[in-house]
Amino acid sequence: MFNFIRKSGKEECPVRVDEPSPGVPDPEEKGGIRELAEEFLRLHRHEDPHAAPLQPRLREVERQIERSGTYEHTPDELAFGARVAWRNSNRCIGRLYWRSLQVRDRRHIDTAEGMAQEAAGHLRAATNGGRIRPVITVFAQEAPDRPAPRIWSEQLIRYAGYEEDPGPVVGDPRNTGITDAARELGWPGGPGTPFDVLPLIVQGSGEQPRWFELPDDCVLEVPLTHPDLDWFEELGLRWHAVPAISSMCLEIGGVCYPAAPFNGWYMGTEIGARNLADTDRYNLLPTVADGLGLDRSGDRSLWKDRALVELNLAVLHSFDRAGVTVADHHTESRRFLTHLEREERAGRRVGADWSWIVPPLSGAATPVFHRYYDTCEQRPAFAHHPESLVLSRGESLVGHEI
Ligand code: ARG
Known about the structure:
It is a single chain. Helix content is 33%, strand content 11%. It is an alpha+beta fold and 402 residues long. It has one domain (27-367, 383-392): Nitric Oxide Synthase, Chain A, domain 1, CATH 3.90.340. β4 (161-162) and β5 form a beta hairpin. α6 (268-275) packs across α8 (303-322). It is globular. The structure holds arginine. Arginine is lined by residues 94, 243, 245, 264-267, 270, 275.
């Protein structure tokens, strides 16, 4: 067993530390799984006229719970549950296409080896030569007699962060913890560039965690250039094409799937206004501003704002040039409002978190800024479980034998 120890209580500030969503009651509570199962099965039958009749299915689920403490979803239920979990993701602006999520049912897989292989398959299916497809791969569920497998890595693709002592981090400072964890597990480290792809860290059911290098053909990356500024290319910046979150738990009808990596496509601002720009990430605004020859002696030259625009332009331009799907924040904002209209027409509530929906660049120039949202939390859902956050920061290895 692991003890989850926090490194001196350090919290990374822009990483919002999420409590399990308040709308998701503990499935361990007495009667919890039964109620949650019934609520989900009713929802499925309500929305899908082709689903098998409710009462016999409820009786079957009840028998399974009686026998094993949990139950198995049918492939249809799993696919519906995963899609609705996306639909219910209050922080996601990209939900218009929730029905198109491709669901890879890999619930029979619970070994590290098997998961690493399937994660590679996931990335190939999602990358699709640059025409990014939303995909989820669902591994074995949690059961009372058998812990589910887990993916420690926060995303399938992440860049290493090497802590130099003294000196600034080389790479992505967000990932220093998991980089250390990989090394402690025996990863020899990458070449030491600011964009070394980390190995995937996975833990099979009842196994020790292991690291696996991702095969090259699974990791599509886009080198960044600017449409007008020749010097930009020399900064040597790049980003990966697929954002595949792998540390959130998919919760459907009282069943938890802790290993269920999923991806959509990027919105440019995630890279250009956060990953490369945040002061505790790649912190590149001063570098870009210097390239632009801007006066950085005070805030009022708006050097940060001007550098942000050029950096974000470079991201969109480079992804387009490479033939890799990327959304811009204006288009994605309009799509989100279309999503709200469609859902309302279907008679469903849509929860949304304003602070996550509004883009980190030019917020008020997008229509999503100028209104409020229903903040209801609904199930099925993707949830951050506290232990997954600890694992994804590599903190469980600190001071511990594994
Ligand atoms: N913001 C995260 C990143 O930059 C990815 C989150 C999911 N994003 C998405 N477009 N599906 O890596």
